[in-house]
# Entry
Amino acid sequence: MKLFLSVVSLLIVGFAFSQDKNTGVIQGKVIDSETGEGLPSAQVELVEQSKKVLSDIEGIYNFSKLEKGAYTVRIVYPGFPTQVVNDVKVKDGEVTTIDVIMAPAVGDSLIEVVVEAKRITDTDQGVALKQKNAISVGDVVSSQTIQRSTASNTSDVLKMVSGASIQDNKFAIIRGLNDRYNAAFLNGSPLPSSESDRKAFSFDMFPASMLENLTITKSATPDQPAEFAGGLIQINTKSIPEKNFFSFQVGTGINTITTFKDRTSYKGGKMDWLGIDDGSRKIPSAVAPFGEYPLNIHDQAKVAQQVSTNWATTESKFLPNLSLQASGGFNKKFGKREFGMIAALTYSRSFSYNETVRNSYLNSTDPTSSQTTQMENDYLDKNNVTNLLAGALANFAFKINDLNTITFKNIYSINSSDKLINRTGATNASENNPIIIRSNARWFTSDRVYSGQLEGQHGLRAKGFKLNWLAGYSNVNRTIPNLSRSVYTRNKDFIDPSNPDPRDTMYTANISSSSVGPAYGGGMFFSENKESSVNSRLDFSYATDLFGKFKSEFKIGLYNQIRTRKFAARQLGFTKYGVSGGNIEFDQNLLYLPEDQIFSSENMGLLEPAANGNPGKGGFKLTDGTKPSDQYNAQSVLNAAYIQLDNRFGKRFRFIYGARLEYFQQELNALKDDLSELKISTKKLDVLPSINAIFEANRRSNIRLSYSQTLNRPEYRELAPFAFYDFTTNFVVSGNDTLKRALIHNLDLRYETFPGRGQLFSATIFYKNFINPIEQKSRPDVVGEISFQNVPSATNYGLELEARSLISTIFGLDTSSLFDDLTVYSNLSIIRSQVDVSSVVGSVADSRPLQGQSPYVFNAGIRYDNARNQWGVSLNINRVGQRIYIVGNVNEPDLWEQARTFLDLQITKSFMKGRAQFKLNIQNILAQNQIFYQNSSTARSEVKGMNGFFNTVFVGDKNNNQGFDKEIDQQVWKTNFGRTFSASLSFRL
# Structure
């Protein structure tokens, strides 16, 4: 907190005092109506002062230090009618934005067009234009849309995208394809996987306040990386401001089932408030490295005596959530040169408490079995969680002249989760005298991500030539410094009621004599995952008019990416020191001690030496349970080249086509548990063609048809033999070194229309054919273990509908100021998929849906903006259909996630002439339970009427046989959630 306040003070001094509040700015962008791209070197004149500037390589122009008043702006560009914007109002200390769209001349006449000035206050219009003129199928979320929503991080923003949903509150699923089929890019550079155990990026890492926009590309073009099938998610952070500013925001929040309720925690480190372990959880220095750890039990007992651990828990109350943000920027001109910077700090700490019922079953897969399904485990988890998100952004831009710009963008994010999970329940719930368990896990995870890009944009003097380059570096460091587990058990009743033994119903620590693993208490897991990525890109393009009449762009480029990962885990555990019948016997009384005493230093090693023919008493020793497979090193190199042509034929037809060449090398080195060496070396050359055809039905509408080939390659973790036990799910996750890359054929057909004023309507049909897709599934040969496998083929197809409109337009009430301030949006995706598993050993059926694919995704919202009174209201709803969470087998059924609906509300009020704003958010108003279940093969009752109709359309099954029915399906997990109320106040200088 002290660091945050110190940096805020520096930002105030550096930015607030650099402002010139007595002058204003006119700035904007000159845009080609046909391409949506900025027009470089357009002449922009400020008539009253006879000032003339040329727009830069992106079409941006700027007049600064203007006195208060009204001005006239004239824009001249060869081949376009001159445009004049009258009565442009300039106010002290404010930026007046005038974006001008240049339309080609009609015939050979070049006339001067006079446009009445209207300040653009809604970036949805610019986004709609960008989406209309994009060369591929995709969606864009503007900064203003983000600001008006209840989104707090990037994963919340993704919920607004057509066909997109979020799993586990952070992983993206687009068009029914799980996270492994989506790629994440930040400012043009790829983001490495943030997860140790899956190919995925955690989108809750980046605060929404740092985003300029979010673009999701759904059809491939040669100039984009080809490793995606659902969507290419491009996150763009804040750009350089038009004027100097400083802003500060403070917020707080409460959760209805968390705040001020009882909290169980433990003593952490002094840097937990920043999301970083201070070293208090690290492996003690007395513990020798893996491979050098002593095997002799007496030496292990001596090590235990040198290890100090604290397993006590503490009780307190959950505090309200806290969020802070400070940002500032400045822009300075030096003649034709211009330098700008924007910096931001954000910090949020949130608490959550929820309860999860966890069940497992016997005989649940065979409906013909004479044995009835029995509950095996019946657990209740009480989850005490502290989430922290801290981020810093620093972006710089230097405009050398109108044609050359250099930018340097940096973002650093710390995301930590600190959990204390208390588990109680029965381990053999169906027996007459089940064993009762009392267990807990202390689980601190810290993710630190840095991403930086140095980029140059250059327009050559010869008209039509552009050269862009980028050099990027990303680093992800994920640490679990000490995941410690305790396990106590007892019998529910006396074993012999006629001769009761008091110790039958006393909790006993479940400690092994020599083993370290999930079933035993006293276990400690440590891991560190370091991954870095270096990438570079060079693009050269030339735009011209072929034969003097066909607009064309020729583009070629090179791309290189080098990724390295180093992963190491360590598993230690306290075990019994003693040998039955030997000269040292373990003191069984220690097992009845509570958690805050059992592993105290006085209980370690030799407690009493042997004397007078009696064996000595032993306490605990420290055993190394690390396996050879608990570490691996990996590296991959991707070299790519592409050629792309963008041809326009007449005013209606446009074709973007070409091919991308990708040569991929991947290496992984590890040891298997039998000490045999695992060396994976893969080399693959792929030629990936694509074509995007666009027919402009009229000035406002497009019809798009696209085809492309893309890839999906196995991740390091999916290949490595490392096995990780997840305490929350009770599953072990391991790799498969035989995985192959998947090839995907993609086909899209879209109709889209843009009526104006930021409105849009679109309908898309898509189809995907997968060869050797990779899925995560439970292993048929090992109970409770999840791995990865290729399946022969799969298909994914569906319909996407999207609309955004003003209420006044829908009902023809253009004169109504109330309805003119109301915007509604909605998108609906209906998706089907089929995986061919007829030849896969251990599959229950010949086909099933793709893992993670929902049959429908629905998002909708309504927004009211009253510019005159400076307040607004937005209501958003999101619903995702049921989906397979983990693919099952003949022994374990598919694990499904039940459909849920989210409803969020935001109210905003600005005051102090727009320099201050108050926000009130209510998130997850419905607070529905999250349910995972094993689907019963029993036929459902027939559904009639509207419910049957909706099931047929949205699920594809009138009776919704795959949906959750609490009467016949086995509920595996159920977690409750509360509603979150948050308020924030922001000021802008």
